[in-house]
């Protein structure tokens, strides 16, 4: 559920001001597309988990969402450290850069937790009768 919330927040925050007078779409060339796809994977993780009756779809989606979230986290942190050159004068960070970075880090962490929670341990090992091998 949290991956879907972080994914939706990330997709919405791409239109927020990340840098002074520039959104993520205006300021970045490829990073914004990677962040957008990562956000969509977080949303799809939520939808796929709710719609699927098996663990295959959510588990696969959580793997891709975690990988894209990790890649997006690295790219977003790098943009916080080294903002893009948007012309003359300094490029100041806006609130969207901080919120977007937090959203993509939250997406990576929650997708990683979703991967872990798909393990099903329904078999009780002690309930299985143990019979000795014939000699």
Explain the overall architecture.
- With 135 residues, the chain is mainly alpha-helical.
- The protein contains 5 helices and 2 strands; from the N terminus they run αββαααα.
- The chain has helices at 2-13, 24-27, 31-51, 56-81, 95-116, and strands at residues 17-19, 22-23.
- Helix 1 (2-13) packs antiparallel against helix 3 (31-51) and helix 1 (2-13) packs antiparallel against helix 5 (95-116).
- The chain starts with a helix and ends in a 19-residue tail after the last helix.
- Quaternary state of this entry equals single chain
Judging from the principal axes of the Cα atoms, what is the shape? Answer: elongated
Output mean pLDDT: 89
Helix content: 55-70%
**What is the alpha-carbon Rg in Å?**
20 Å
- Order of neighbouring strands in the sheet with most strands: 1-2
Helix/sheet category: mainly alpha
Describe the main β-sheet briefly. Answer: 2 strands, antiparallel
- Give the beta-strand count: 2
End-to-end gap:
54 Å
Task: Write out key terms for the chains shown.
two-stranded antiparallel sheet, elongated, 5 helices, 135 residues
Break the fold down into its secondary structure elements and pairings:
Layout: H1 2-13, E1 17-19, E2 22-23, H2 24-27, H3 31-51, H4 56-81, H5 95-116
Antiparallel strand pairs: 1-2
Helix pairs in contact: 1-3, 1-5, 3-4, 4-5
